[in-house]
Specification:
eight-stranded mixed beta sheet; seven-stranded antiparallel beta sheet; 16 helices; binds flavin-adenine dinucleotide; binds 2-acetamido-2-deoxy-beta-D-glucopyranose; GMC_OxRtase_C; flavin adenine dinucleotide binding; FAD; Aryl-alcohol oxidase-like protein; signal
């Protein structure tokens, strides 16, 4: 009897996908596929590839399991965002940002199974159809168009009722939703704030259109946000894809606490990269694993370009200056980094908001206890944002004179997100009493582009991250416009009897100059970096990966599947687009290797 079957009789789980916490525990060094990073995209790819029982998949993740002492910060919807700065965050920091008055800002990324999908704010927004159509145009591959991706969109996500079964009729469109493992839902607890947002829309439908389902391909207007929450728990890539695969299959292994330090070049021309070098810390022993088919890099917009450059794949001169042997000269690795900004403005509320609840530790503890026992209550049904709006600059805006950076005329330049409490900007002192509401203004279509570079040849030193925020007049001008547009929105009669005085710093925003100064003082990242390994047309010398996501420059055996491939900042929120790209990527890989 094969050993595995014997175990199956005794101790079934041991025969299923194994989880290892150190490289020396693995008994095999050869797999068909090696997926680098158990993040948002990596979990999808690993899960889909392992559907075929004839292939063996190894997933290598630098971070930790998602059942550690920080698990509540992952699982409890109400605590979304609280994983930042803990053991499940890489804790990166940007360079001093000239556009942000010289501030260096924290740059969180998930260091845990599920990657950033385990620490993000859970907003599920696919963006406008034009975003995908632009991706298809930029890559020359119609397979990336909105219409042609529908199958993968439906494979990814499934809309479910909020935990309390509140009727969500009219708040989303069932026709826009599929049958995938990732769960999404609208809030279980709409607030008075949200009712006032909806009232403003019905009073001014021309100016502020209601969009019943922001995930229908029409990404403009206002509506109910869908969050990656189901049954009162965060639905991360790990929970939706990786755990079910590990729990039911024998052909997938996961190696945690282990960083891929570089790809090793083999083959006559030295351009095949199907082996990976790993280590648990800077001084630790190095190990090697080999993929007989492909290595899939899903280490994210920071990790992926870092690994490529450590492997000699990137801008030749820069790598040689650090003492790294250049293998493939691809100047766009790490170039083009784009991200979006968020800026909070706050008002006093004349009715009770979540501020009262949040300043009452007994109430908060009771809610957390209720979640722990029953996965119900306010902690189960609400993240930070219930309602949101995507808007454009006026068509005659001088900011659009030199071109429109949005994906098309139905794509947003900026966004409002409504929060039922005081959302402080980073390091901004928050009032301890009173009831407050906030609106976060995000820049959707930045034109600033920065870069990611290696600090040294050590894989364990954080790279140099420069998103170059607000380095164009379009970006800062759009934010100034957005703040004024927000004040106009709040001047509608629906807000009478609800909105009180603005917070003093907001009350002082009387001129464009004052708004610009406020933005440069307080804006931070909305945590959506992309484009550090961007896709481009087959014949295009620029770019890092081909339309099928295989590495360019004559390299063999490596595909990049994560947020780094997007050529432009994605409209809205990137996780949905990352999931969709990963679903199609897995299908492309299966096609390449004739796997079902
Ligand atoms: C705090 C926060 C809030 C956000 N809020 C939202 C939101 O509300 N909605 C939304 O759509 N998007 C949001 N985002 C962005 C979104 O989560 C990301 O764009 C998306 O998850 C990125 O997916 P990815 O697969 O590219 O990378 P990730 O999910 O980050 O996965 C990369 C994985 O690779 C691992 N890794 C990296 N380097 C190595 C290495 N050398 N060796 C081994 N493993 C490695 C990492 O540990 C990680 O697990 C947020 C992000 C953050 C950080
Ligand atoms: C935590 O999760 C890991 C990975 O899924 C698993 O191997 C381990 O057994 C879990 N530990 C506990 C205490 O459940
Ligand atoms: C991030 O910082 C926190 C707080 O200092 C620390 O506990 C955690 O270990 C750090 N994360 C990593 C991956 O080092
Ligand atoms: C919601 O509906 C589901 C499925 O019908 C049911 O199992 C659950 O108990 C309901 N929850 C509440 C709070 O009514
Ligand atoms: C959990 O639900 C049960 C049954 O409805 C209820 O009796 C109990 O009080 C709840 N627990 C908490 C902590 O709210």
């Amino acid at each position: 009897m094969p050993l595995c079957l014997l175990f199956l009789l005794l101790l079934a789980p041991h025969c299923l996908g194994s989880v290892f916490t150190a490289p020396e525990q693995l008994t095999s060094t050869k797999y068909d596929f090696i997926v680098v990073g158990a993040g948002t995209a990596g979990c999808v790819v690993a899960s889909r590839l392992s559907e075929n029982p004839t292939v063996k998949v190894l997933v290598i993740e630098a971070g930790v399991a998602d059942n550690t002492t920080e698990a509540d910060l992952i699982n409890i919807p109400f605590l979304a965002g609280q994983g930042i700065g803990t053991t499940i965050d890489w804790n990166y920091t940007t360079t001093n940002q000239a556009g942000l008055n010289g501030r260096a800002i924290p740059y969180p990324r998930g260091f845990v199974m599920g990657g950033s999908s385990s620490i993000n704010s859970m907003i599920y927004f696919r963006g406008p159809s034009e975003d995908f159509d632009r991706l298809a145009a930029a890559s020359g591959d119609p397979g990336w168009s909105w219409e042609n991706l529908q199958r993968f969109i439906f494979m990814n996500e499934r809309h479910v009722a909020p935990w309390n079964n509140r009727s969500n009729a009219g708040e989303y469109d069932p026709r826009a939703h599929g049958h995938g493992p990732l769960l999404s839902s609208v809030t279980a607890d709409p607030f008075e704030l949200d009712r006032r947002v909806i009232q403003t829309l019905s009073d001014h439908p021309e100016k502020y259109p209601f969009n019943m389902d922001l995930n229908s391909g029409n990404g403009l207007g206002f509506g109910w946000i869908q969050s990656t929450v189901g049954n009162g728990v965060r639905s991360s890539a790990s929970r939706a894809y990786l755990h079910p695969a590990l729990d039911s299959r024998t052909n997938i292994d996961l190696l945690l606490h282990t960083q891929v330090t570089r790809l090793i070049s083999t083959g006559a021309a030295g351009s095949t990269f199907t082996s990976v070098e790993v280590a648990q810390s800077a001084g630790a022993t190095k190990f090697e694993f080999t993929a007989t088919k492909e290595v899939i890099l899903s280490a994210g917009s920071i990790g992926t370009p870092q690994i490529l450059m450590l492997s000699g794949i990137g801008p030749k001169n820069e790598l040689e200056a650090l003492g790294i042997i250049s293998r493939i000269d691809l100047p766009d690795v790490g170039a083009n980094l784009q991200d979006q900004t968020i800026l909070s403005l706050q008002w006093e509320a004349k009715v009770e908001t979540l501020s009262s609840f949040l300043s009452d530790p007994a109430a908060v503890n009771a809610a957390l206890a209720q979640w722990t026992e029953n996965k119900t209550g306010i902690a189960a049904g609400t993240s930070l944002v219930n309602t949101i709006g995507f808007l454009r600059l006026p068509e005659d805006s001088p900011l659009l004179k030199s071109g429109d950076p949005a994906a098309g005329s139905n794509s947003a330049h900026f966004e409002f997100a409504f929060l039922n409490t005081f959302l402080p900007n980073a390091d901004q002192p928050a009032p301890l009493t009173g009831n407050w509401v906030s609106a976060a203004v995000t820049l959707q279509s930045p034109t600033s582009r920065g870069s990611l570079k290696l600090r040294s040849r050590s894989a364990f030193e954080h790279p140099i991250i420069d998103p170059a925020f607000y380095t164009t007049s379009f970006d800062i001008g759009t934010v100034v416009h957005a703040v004024k547009a927000l004040r106009e929105f709040f001047s509608a009669s629906a807000w009478d009897g609800f909105l009180g005085s603005p917070f003093p710093a907001v009350a002082a925003l009387n001129t464009d100059e004052a708004i610009e100064a406020y933005a440069r003082t307080w804006a931070t990242t909305v945590k959506h970096p992309v484009s550090t390994a961007k896709i481009s047309k087959i014949a295009d010398k620029a770019g890092v990966v081909s339309p099928n996501l295989l590495l360019k420059g004559g390299a063999n055996g490596v595909r990049v599947v994560d947020a780094s491939i997007f050529p432009f900042a994605v409209a809205g929120y990137p996780q949905a687009e990352v999931y969709i790209v990963a679903e199609r990527a897995a299908a492309l890989i299966k096609e390449t290797w004739s796997l079902k």
